[in-house]
Amino acid sequence: MSSSAAAGFLNRGNSGNGSNMRGLVQFIADLRNARARELEEKRINKELANISLSGYHKKKYVCKLLYIYILGWNVDFGHLEAVNLISANKYSEKQIGYLAMTLFLHEQHELLHLVVNSIRKDLMDHNELFNCLALHAIANVGGREMGEALSGEVHRLLISPTSKAFVKKKAALTLLRLYRKHPDIVQPQWAERIISLMDDADMGVALSVTSLVTALAQDQPEQYKGSYVKAAARMKRILVDGEYAADYLYYKVPCPWIQVKLLRLLQYFPPSEDTHVRELIRESLQKILNLALEMPKNVQQNNAQNAVLFEAINLIIHLDTEQALMNQISTRLGKFIQSRETNVRYLGLEAMTHLAARAETLDPIKQHQSIIIGSLKDRDISVRRKGLDLLYSMCDQTNARPIVGELMIYLQNADFGIREEMVLKIAILTEKYATDVKWYVDISLRLIAMAGDHVSDEVWQRVIQIVTNNEELQVYAVQHILQYCKADHCHETLIKLGAYVLGEFGHLIADDRGGSPIEQFLALYNKLPGCSFGTRAMILSCYIKFVNLFPEIRPRLMYVFESYSYSLDSELQQRACEYLALARLPTDDLLRTVCDEMPPFPERQSALLSRLHQKHANTSDKRTWVVGGKDANANEKDFSLARNSGLKRAFSSTNGTMNGTNGGTDGHSNISNDLAGLNMNDAGPSEPKTLKAPNLASAAHLSPDWEIGYNKLLLKGEGILYEDGQIQIGVRSEYRGQMACVILYFANKAPTAVTSFTTTLDLEPAEKENLSWEVKGLPESTIHEGAQSQQMIMFQAKKVFGKSPTIRISYLAGALQALTLKIPVAIHKFMDPAELSAEDFFKRWKQIGGAPREAQSIFGAKGGKDGGREFTDSFIRNTVEGFRWGILDGVDPNKKNFVGASVLHTGEGGKFGCLMRLEPNYATQAIRLTIRATDDSVPPILIKLIEERLAVGVSTVPEPTEAPTYRDISDAFSNVLVT
Amino acid sequence: MINAVLVFNNAGQPRLTKFYTQLETSVQQRLISEIFTLVSHRPSGSCNFLPLPPLLASSSTSTVPSSEHNDVPSLVTYRHYATLYFIIISTSTESPLALIDLIQVYVEALDRLFENVCELDLIFNFETLHAALAEMIVGGVVVETQLERVVEGVKAQGRVAKRPVNEGRGGGLGMGMGMGMGGNFGWTGR
């Protein structure tokens, strides 16, 4: 291989300067041949001395620097040369310049000021390769300053219809980098446009944009909620419809990366309430599970398939509503953790830990308890760690003892790397699930005795806190600690614990055999010489408490203080002197006050948990769950854990302050600090988020001319809602009782296909409980020229509602086009005309009576007679009938008056009877309208709707085309309308 | 996100170091040697995942958590081919198996670019190595995974020079390091 490569060397070198680069080759070869670091250094220094820029080619020089850098040497002096190369015109030189810049410089580097303009020039260049180099540079070293200067250009490259796919995808991730550095850079109004790019036909662009959206959606879920439906629909198109570019098939799996990204994006949102979207997701997930049933022989295919599968499992656990899928995965996971493939075992355990973090019941996991415990003996430390996480998470009252027992056994042989974490976890479990005080004390002390050096301060301090706060624990604890302290080999941590506990509670066992004051004294005294200064200080503090508790051994205690009053350590000396003085006071009043029993610690979050979770906070993407069972995930926001410990506090918590004598040493002051509950790191970025984005789908953002179609369709079941040069939107609707079926037809009139076609429904939050809907399907994402797509929506009037829902329609036709329209669904559409005899009508009219169940209004045509609008008999009749009143002819004595009756259907409110009386005065062009209904919520809404419509009146000159005829509509929708 | 991509050989010599979060050069070197020690001592048949050694984690476990919005890497995903280790350091929010696939695509892309890639190609053509990586990862996020497009993207930037391996005397020593990735992309130990 080598000789053939050598033969082709001269031909393959970069043309033009191929021979120039030979010096580089020689240089690299020399370095490779250097047997020792010293020789390498010598050669590098020689080269550095050799370099004189006038003679040497800059590119080669920078290349050499790069190689030196890769070997781990510092090349600060060459940075300026690298930066200069960026502004070169030749691509190969520019490329090396950018490469060097991204490797050498970091975001705070001062030289970056110099390159901003060169980068901007390259971003605006027509050469896409230059664009890419510049984007890549920003993505590597871009900070706040660069972001402010260049984010506009990056965004332009991302959304410009003329950008090539390979530029777009890099622009997306460059924007992501800038966003992470400085969230304000991404402006709220970009959201819709960015989301629409998730539909890009190029999988690379879709992948990058999905990454970008995932990051944005974590911080502004409301603004990016449109991405949820997009992700669900794209998933389904890839998996179920097989819609993907064939070259993205990776070992027979269609682009596993994008699948993983989409699945992950879905986990950042709460499960959708829309049944159709849920169905889309369910279908995709089931497909993934089915595909994974066959175990391919090919390692790569297996790997890719599993990557998707495990992410799908995470999503299923997140959704937590798909019982059928949930059952499938819990059996599946049981097999995974016994798999022969180490990777699968590892990921199986991780997924199960996720399951334990979310599932209602731990039973499916407990079935596998013995296998999981077995994983602690796995050959691979990574698997052992995951096993530990899972055991920790699956622990509850019933299995705490066996699990803690196993963990204790394993702790003895565990790797040093994970002992500290194990100790923490055992300590937490012991405290959390202790039902028996003896068990708690036994395990805690054994743990400290066994793990010794791996016990972090929080662990033994927490034991003190618990013992102090639980009276029933104290005697047992002090007995056992004394036993440990008497032993020949006793870890220093236990001595610290002993010094504190004996000092506080030693008197409780003073009458026991083996617990006499002198024995307590000796137990600690024997350990004194071997301890660190901090521990000795604690023992001295314990002894001053003994002076108070056990006057009988006072001389020996005084002797200790005296000898330590000459200690070389200033802290110990000071303590000994102070204690001596305190003990020698003529009265022991002060001593007694100082050594009074410690008040219980105020209840706080366990320092242990804070400690454990420090490690998890602050990642770029937020985790959607944490290790540690359901209650650990109950409040995801602040990761707060297990407030109610298994041990009941014997004392009510009072805000006790630390006793003065105990301050001073490291050991003691740490107690007050650490137990005060360490501040948890906030998982999210600390910067306040950008302004709240407008909800573009809401009625506040209606597009111009929305009312033309809406007004017409208020009185009709079908017709054209909106039309412009590019798109025509038609509506067909049918009402039955409180249910309405509305079908929207979208026809593309533009000369090219439109893509990323998206619809979003919205309604004022206050109205949502009155009118609900269910989307039965989504329109096609791509509508070809001349083609049509449709969407069916079922509405249900639950109660009387006053506002119509709105729909946001957006699509890409080159640039992003968007419309917001009102859907002609109003309360009167749910009315059925009724027939009543004159007698019945007036009987009911009287029964209902006046206000509040009556509304009345007197109005004229808008603009009056001079405005060219008037009321006519036929206009009023048509309009009233359009509002679905059954006109009762001959009921009113005055023939000019209209009287109508109807029944309004609602889901939750039931049926309402509605009566109407309309008295026109054609001479003055005024109308008096009175509506009565069986519920006082109905008349005001109805009268407003009808008045608005009637007040428009009819033109005094006949209008040639009033509305499209049935024929017009059927022409427009000939291919979908069934006549 | 992906915090770093590293390639080193069986002797622990770095062949590619690319960090997406900034680190001191000296810390980088220490990290590489720490990871090398960890990875090279793993028995065959172990899984491809490791928690990050405490070197980087140390900054995050200090009692005063930095208020800055830090990307804390926590996962090492690695793959071993004949003489080379490919390492990705990432946060725990990346899918580990997808990272393994990413390494595979990267290696396949290099194999295409160099026609039977060997370690020496990586040594003498580090800029191509970086170019290929730049086609796949931008700012720590995966941008492209389709083999053909990665290869096309690199080739579009100029011809890939297959720089020579005529190292004279050193030839005998370095030559045997072919990665053996031509036809058999076997994982070692599997």
UniProtKB/TrEMBL annotation, chain A:
<comment type="function">
    <text>Adaptins are components of the adaptor complexes which link clathrin to receptors in coated vesicles. Clathrin-associated protein complexes are believed to interact with the cytoplasmic tails of membrane proteins, leading to their selection and concentration.</text>
</comment>
<protein>
    <recommendedName>
        <fullName>AP-2 complex subunit alpha</fullName>
    </recommendedName>
</protein>
<dbReference type="InterPro" id="IPR050840">
    <property type="entry name" value="Adaptor_Complx_Large_Subunit"/>
</dbReference>
<dbReference type="InterPro" id="IPR008152">
    <property type="entry name" value="Clathrin_a/b/g-adaptin_app_Ig"/>
</dbReference>
<dbReference type="GO" id="GO:0072583">
    <property type="term" value="P:clathrin-dependent endocytosis"/>
</dbReference>
<dbReference type="InterPro" id="IPR002553">
    <property type="entry name" value="Clathrin/coatomer_adapt-like_N"/>
</dbReference>
<keyword id="KW-0472">Membrane</keyword>
<comment type="similarity">
    <text>Belongs to the adaptor complexes large subunit family.</text>
</comment>
<dbReference type="Pfam" id="PF02296">
    <property type="entry name" value="Alpha_adaptin_C"/>
</dbReference>
<dbReference type="Pfam" id="PF01602">
    <property type="entry name" value="Adaptin_N"/>
</dbReference>
<dbReference type="InterPro" id="IPR009028">
    <property type="entry name" value="Coatomer/calthrin_app_sub_C"/>
</dbReference>
<feature type="binding site">
    <location>
        <position position="56"/>
    </location>
    <ligand>
        <name>a 1,2-diacyl-sn-glycero-3-phospho-(1D-myo-inositol-3,4,5-trisphosphate)</name>
    </ligand>
</feature>
<dbReference type="GO" id="GO:0006886">
    <property type="term" value="P:intracellular protein transport"/>
</dbReference>
<keyword id="KW-0168">Coated pit</keyword>
<dbReference type="InterPro" id="IPR003164">
    <property type="entry name" value="Clathrin_a-adaptin_app_sub_C"/>
</dbReference>
<dbReference type="InterPro" id="IPR016024">
    <property type="entry name" value="ARM-type_fold"/>
</dbReference>
<dbReference type="GO" id="GO:0030122">
    <property type="term" value="C:AP-2 adaptor complex"/>
</dbReference>
<keyword id="KW-0813">Transport</keyword>
<dbReference type="InterPro" id="IPR012295">
    <property type="entry name" value="TBP_dom_sf"/>
</dbReference>
<dbReference type="InterPro" id="IPR011989">
    <property type="entry name" value="ARM-like"/>
</dbReference>
<feature type="binding site">
    <location>
        <begin position="60"/>
        <end position="64"/>
    </location>
    <ligand>
        <name>a 1,2-diacyl-sn-glycero-3-phospho-(1D-myo-inositol-3,4,5-trisphosphate)</name>
    </ligand>
</feature>
<feature type="binding site">
    <location>
        <begin position="22"/>
        <end position="23"/>
    </location>
    <ligand>
        <name>a 1,2-diacyl-sn-glycero-3-phospho-(1D-myo-inositol-3,4,5-trisphosphate)</name>
    </ligand>
</feature>
TrEMBL record, chain B:
<dbReference type="InterPro" id="IPR011012">
    <property type="entry name" value="Longin-like_dom_sf"/>
</dbReference>
<feature type="domain" description="AP complex mu/sigma subunit">
    <location>
        <begin position="1"/>
        <end position="158"/>
    </location>
</feature>
<dbReference type="GO" id="GO:0012505">
    <property type="term" value="C:endomembrane system"/>
</dbReference>
<keyword id="KW-0653">Protein transport</keyword>
<keyword id="KW-0813">Transport</keyword>
<dbReference type="InterPro" id="IPR016635">
    <property type="entry name" value="AP_complex_ssu"/>
</dbReference>
<keyword id="KW-0472">Membrane</keyword>
<protein>
    <recommendedName>
        <fullName>AP complex subunit sigma</fullName>
    </recommendedName>
</protein>
<dbReference type="Pfam" id="PF01217">
    <property type="entry name" value="Clat_adaptor_s"/>
</dbReference>
<dbReference type="InterPro" id="IPR022775">
    <property type="entry name" value="AP_mu_sigma_su"/>
</dbReference>
<dbReference type="GO" id="GO:0006886">
    <property type="term" value="P:intracellular protein transport"/>
</dbReference>
<comment type="similarity">
    <text>Belongs to the adaptor complexes small subunit family.</text>
</comment>
